[in-house]
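Let us work through a complete example step by step.
Step 1: write down the sequence.
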Amino acid sequence: MKQLLSALALTALLPLNVATAIEHTGTPAEKGLSIAKEADARNEGWVDSEASMTMILRNRQGQESERELRIKSLEVTGDGDKSMSIFDTPKDVRGTAMLTFSHVKEADEQWMFLPAVKRVKRISSKNKSGPFMGSEFAFEDLSSFEVDKYSYQYLKDEKVNGQDCFVVEVKPEYEYSGYTRQILWMDKSEYRVQKVEYYDRKNALLKTQTFNDYRQYLGKFWRAHDIKMVNHQTGKSTDLKWGDYAFKVGLDEKDFTKNSLKRAK
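Step 2: predict the structure and record it as tokens.
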């Protein structure tokens, strides 16, 4: 639940035979929260990361355009994580960069550096539902997953991608979300998100996000290398094809400032 994911990235890890023995009990709300907390706990300790990514935009007619970018991320203890997205191609967006400070209790903060006008623009908290760089990912999808920003309801068990999954309804507790709720499928073995459905402010199905080609890093952290977002209302879609991740590369707070946006390379 901490991917561009998007918006949602997960994964400290217990041995597989212990993980599969975990039982979540209580009311549907308590069970949903327990599942979310377990998923979040499994992604602690990655410190920082870098990865390259190809973004493929596809319109209703199936015509495609590609963008190459790099993602830098920093794990923050006691608050939401920080990330920076830097576009390398095509030429008309080269140098464009976005900085995201995710928060647990307060509104997330986001800024974009636009090289054409050589200035940093703050993204309004009221505009988080807008599309990111013409993709089917909204600005709010790019914030890290923080458990306390949502309420939860366990719905059922169901199999997706050949995996036995928990199905959990997630509702945003923060202002100005473009979604009334999300339904996510999370596998029981490693607590990896397999699919997410997004419902708009009228509670109609808006988008579906799917995750494939999970790979494990440092013996504990799982990352999907093939992510697809389909907009059912427009017929458009966006694919994210990730390169290999590098963890603990030495990034720190000074690499995630508004000034660093202008120097992003």
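Step 3: interpret the result. The first strand starts at residue 48 and ends at 58.
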